[in-house]
Amino acid sequence: MTYQTPLADFDFLLHRVLKISTQDIPGYADLDPGFTAAILGEAGKLSEQVLAPLNAVGDREGCRLENGVVRTPAGFRAAFDALRDGGWTALDCAPEFGGQGLPSLMHTAINEPFVSANMALNMFLGLTHGAYSAIATHGSAEQKALFLPKLASCQWTGTMNLTEPQCGTDLGLIRTRAEPAADGTWRITGTKIFISAGDHDLAENIIHLVLAKAPGGGEGTKGISLFIVPKFLPDAAGNPGALNAVQALKVEHKMGIHGSPTCQMAYDGATGFLLGDLHKGMRAMFTMMNEARLGVGMQGYAVAEAAYQAARAYALDRRQGRAATGAADPTQPADPLIVHPDIRRMLMDQKSFIEAARAFTFWSANLIDRAHRLGQADADALVSLLIPVLKGFQTDMGFQMTVQAQQIWGGHGYIEDNPMSQFVRDARIAMIYEGANGVQALDLLGRKLPAEGGRAVQAFLALVQTECQAHGPEMDAFTAPLKQASKALAAALGTLMEQGARDPDSALAGSTDLLHLMGHVAFGLMWTRMVAAAQADLAAGAGDAAFLRAKLITGQHYMTRHLPLSALHLARIQSGGETTMALDPQAF
Amino acid sequence: MTYQTPLADFDFLLHRVLKISTQDIPGYADLDPGFTAAILGEAGKLSEQVLAPLNAVGDREGCRLENGVVRTPAGFRAAFDALRDGGWTALDCAPEFGGQGLPSLMHTAINEPFVSANMALNMFLGLTHGAYSAIATHGSAEQKALFLPKLASCQWTGTMNLTEPQCGTDLGLIRTRAEPAADGTWRITGTKIFISAGDHDLAENIIHLVLAKAPGGGEGTKGISLFIVPKFLPDAAGNPGALNAVQALKVEHKMGIHGSPTCQMAYDGATGFLLGDLHKGMRAMFTMMNEARLGVGMQGYAVAEAAYQAARAYALDRRQGRAATGAADPTQPADPLIVHPDIRRMLMDQKSFIEAARAFTFWSANLIDRAHRLGQADADALVSLLIPVLKGFQTDMGFQMTVQAQQIWGGHGYIEDNPMSQFVRDARIAMIYEGANGVQALDLLGRKLPAEGGRAVQAFLALVQTECQAHGPEMDAFTAPLKQASKALAAALGTLMEQGARDPDSALAGSTDLLHLMGHVAFGLMWTRMVAAAQADLAAGAGDAAFLRAKLITGQHYMTRHLPLSALHLARIQSGGETTMALDPQAF
Fold first, then answer.
1. Which one is catalytic: B434, B452, B467, B498?
2. Is residue B282 within 8 Å of residue B171, measured between CB atoms?
3. Using CA of residue A423, residue A514, residue A126, residue A38, what is the dihedral sign?
4. If both were cysteines, with which of A184, A470, B262, B468 could B252 make a disulfide (CB 3.0 to 4.6 Å apart)?
5. Can you give the pLDDT at residue B220?
6. Are A254 and B399 an interchain contact pair (Cβ–Cβ within 8 Å)?
């Protein structure tokens, strides 16, 4: 695959839409256009030159278990070293642990090209970052000093161990046990499955974060605690020492992300260190969820971006048939695919989705910075509301758009010599892991919406209304579909509240429709902001006029083609759950 | 995978909805319920016991080129023999060539379990059937006598050679040449790609049908002729003789259908026999298109059926979480997935799609019988209109539903040890081959709709209207969404006609939306017929009441959840192609 980092889009979003260097958040003042362009340019170069060429290699070779150790694909080690050596692993980590202390937003922005270029390889980074955050938030001073510098630099990598054969979503069913040892450590015993980067040869040590049940915690999720279980127990000097009683038994053969080893892990009385409070493991997990789900939501559009670029290149190059309005290129026996309206429709659908998803993701990271760096409770509540939408909607739509990009390649898109099949196979997992999208919908409907009497969603609707009114009458026609979609959302909320009181199953039957409806409203909001910024720049004669005009057209495309889906989702929600719940299980 | 043939659904459709044994079509009088149940029961048994167990084997092993010959997966040869020996290859072939002379509808019905159980293996049959039809329609008496008995029995198999590296949809770009030889045969030279079953070890000979340009035919598709090119040239006794100058150079490594060898074929002055008229090859191809596209449209829902069955089994077996309304099974630590409304929503979406698709496919085969066995021109015109819808809509939706079935399996659906990934990877190709779905939309809008001044689509709309009025007032609420959808279709046709006259690109930008809109109306029509039949039986106290009540609920689900999509497609069509066509190609 070839990949080009969308640097102009990054710059537009950061400086013309979000106007980050004017935002009064600690650390943002430094983020002037020159600085962000320099960082993103370097991240892009690494993505294009080092990561992207390894994407197909990782897919083809996969990871394999050899004598108890997992081997990663050829070239992964060197590429990981390049990521490490460039300091890309610790951009937003604390300076006291070797990080650069930049805002979450910058960490988010540099990750996009990494994911587009090589989703599987980037997962080693993402998981390590998650382990860093967990220990940074819940660890003791000693744990922080020991683990955080190594995780910040990715000298050691991290994992998250939740799933077991009998339990996925329902963590109350966990069987892995933790028994206290005399020295204050714990003995962890159990089997974990689907552990990304559970074993590999990219780092000298692997720090497993493991959910397990310690005695006395009670039934269900209440009794769960979180433990740090290093592959090699650190010695007195903090270096990898004795091998712990943890082992990868199997590397799964998956549909995609072959470059990321998904391991079955056996803990056989392994030594673990309690992280955070005993029996409060679930709470510790939840604090990392926004970050992890934002990362997966990014995968949804970042892989679609890579697929879109490949589809665009093919549509400009491949010649079949003639334009309906007469030969576009009479010197050749056929015109390029891009003359055909149905091909353009697909490219515009993809482009208008991806650009809105990028805006939504960057804005959400911006809200996380507001929550973390300014302690703004409303920003925290808003982003908590939006995160399941970001994860579920962007990965659902991202997969659809990646499939559509593959479609443009015709039969050649189905052949593994070309990059399209891998994009589709890789993109598929983002709808499943880190909480399947149905679980995101449940989280949205059952937890996030009712929180604090629905304050966050009311704030979101108010934000949309304010945005619709913030611009002159020349934006009225543009924002009309958004106004309609936000009315549909308000109506849906009313219906769901009424259903929820009367018949919870009926409301739950509409949960995925609600998630998608909110996604469309959020994307309509993003496009309104982007188009307003583009119009302002055009009026001022600033920026690249062709680029800005493309924004107006692409935004209009989203408003006319994607936003009408909100009426469909409302209709489904209003139809209730009757047909969904009526059949006897045996009648299916 | 395990697979259960939906025999009750077949019976309901054939005898309660289509009432085939009362239809006045030659050959239909024999199709009484006992007879069709016996045939379908046997086809089902073969599918469940022989074909389904080989589905994963085919995926895992794939096909490989060894010393110039393609080897199929272990067990495929024996399964193919079982299909051959059972007479399943020739059900609707002419008795004079060894067939059983049954209607197309029965051929269609028995194929569904074959495809559900093993799509890749079934392709050998489907392609051979296509070659049989081509020679039966266009061959000389001599060609028929030589080839048809061998193709009917699948002693020899067939292929279709259209695509070349530089040409897929645009067959005018074909470079394969045919030069006349002194003995009346032709010398074929060129490279063909994506040739399904281009070489293999399942049959003693392979009959390639090859599109090539013969001298004097002019530019573009006009100069194309169709040739019979046997792998082994038949000797005087009609047995495989000398090896022809045709060779498989490569077996493609594909995303799915690994059990079907997709070959790159080299013709190096191979001996060919002209089939049909010189320079009329495209016309000969078109006569087979309805059959081939119906077969691919069936793949769309037949694979979704297999995936649905697996998802249903998992939802009944896998336990996670509790029903929102309280524990459904307090004796166990968790309830089965099927208690969760979002899981049920997905299963109902799949079920209501699959059953309508089956009805639409069987009805279309019924129309083909009317056209062929009764020479009814209106049936021929109607099915020609509907075929691109059947192919495009059913494969688009079938893929979505297969992805949804995979979603129900959570992380386990992403692991290749389980059947779900293969279903998704296999289903994907049906959207691409036999005319990519964008080409189906173009065929519908550009050729089928305007044919004879739009008579066929007017007849279709009249049919829908008649159906909506055919039932008592107790069906009014049920048919209301269909009436609305058919109004949307009528409005869309008006818009497209107006756009087409003014700006063809604008109309073409809506072609896929039109195809989907027509698909929903057709499925609404199918559900109205099925629900009316179920209600009649319930009122008469005939049949299995639980089965019939499930039909009412499933039909209602389609009407409330799927049919509202018609409003979306209309809105998109009415928005025109402005944003689709506005961007400069370089601005994508």
1. B434
2. yes
3. positive
4. B262
5. 85
6. no
Q: Do A588 and B403 make contact, defined as CB atoms within 8 angstroms?
A: no
Residue B324 sits at φ, ψ, to 5 deg, of -65, -25
> Last residue of a domain, which of A138, A166, A186?
A138
Counting the structural domains of chain A, the total is 3
Contact assignment for A553 to B413 by CB distance below 8 Å: no
Which CATH number is B117's domain given?
Answer: 1.10.540.10
Regarding whether B272 and B175 lie in a shared domain, the answer is: yes
Q: B140 and B148 in contact (C-beta within 8 Å)?
A: no
B99-130 residue pLDDT tens: 999 999 999 999 999 999 999 999 999 999 99
The alpha-carbon gap from A48 to the nearest alpha carbon of chain B, in Å, equals 19
Which residue numbers in chain A have pLDDT < 70?
A: none
Of A279, A295, A315, which residue constitutes the final position of a domain?
A279
Res. B290: pLDDT tops 90: no
C-alpha closest to that of A39 among A116, A106, A119: A106
Q: What is the pLDDT of residue A254?
A: 98
Q: What is the pLDDT of residue A429?
A: 98
Tell me what pLDDT residue A88 has.
97
Whether the model pTM is above 0.90: yes
At residue B28, the pLDDT reads 97
Q: How far is CA B559 from the centre of its chain?
A: 24
Mutate to test the interface with B, among A194, A257, A583, A584 (most CBs of B within 10 A): A583
Q: Are residues A483 and A574 in the same domain?
A: yes
Within-domain flag for A471: yes
- Give the confidence band of B283 by pLDDT, cuts at 50, 70, 90: confident
Structural domain of B181: 158-279
Same domain, A123 and A185: no
Name chain A contacts of B253, Cβ cutoff 8 Å. 415-417
Candidate from A256, A436, A575 with C-beta closest to B410: A436
C-alpha neighbours within 13 Å on the C-beta side of residue A342 = 25
Phi, psi angle pair for A207, to nearest 5°? -105, 105
Mean pLDDT of B434-449: 97
Residue B55 belongs to a domain: yes
The per-residue pLDDT for B222 is 84
Q: Is residue A406 part of a domain?
A: no
Same domain for A187 and A262, yes or no, is yes
Which positions ≥6 away from A213 have C-beta within 8 Å? A174, A175, A176, A177, A178, A223, A224, A225
With vertex at residue A188, the alpha carbon angle to CA A182 and CA A193, rounded to the nearest 5 degrees, is 175
Tally: H helices and E strands in chain B: 19, 11
What number is the ipTM of this complex? 0.98
pLDDT band, very low/low/confident/very high, at B446 (cuts 50, 70, 90): very high
Q: How far is CA B365 from CA A392, A562, B218, B431, in A?
A: 40, 35, 36, 20
CATH of the domain at A254: 2.40.110.20
pLDDT, mean of residues B232-247: 98
B434 annotated active-site: yes
Residue A420 lies in a domain: no
Identify whether residues A74 and A190 lie together within a single domain: no
- End-to-end Cα, chain B, rounded Å: 43
Calpha distance B296→B429 (Å, rounded): 9
- pLDDT tens digits, B185-197: 999 999 999 999 9
A11 and A132, same domain (yes or no) = yes
Radius of gyration of chain A (CA): 24
Is the pLDDT at B558 greater than 90, yes or no? yes
What distance in Å separates residue B145's CA from the closest CA in chain A? 35
The pLDDT of residue A222 is 84
In the predicted structure, residue B338 carries a pLDDT above the cut 80: yes
Provide, rounded to the nearest whole percent, the portion of chain B with pLDDT above 70.
Answer: 100
Same domain membership, residue A273 and residue A165: yes
Query: Which residues of chain B make contact with A319, given a CB cutoff of 8 A?
Result: 166, 170, 173
Instruction: Please tell me whether residues A130 and A173 are part of one structural domain.
Output: no
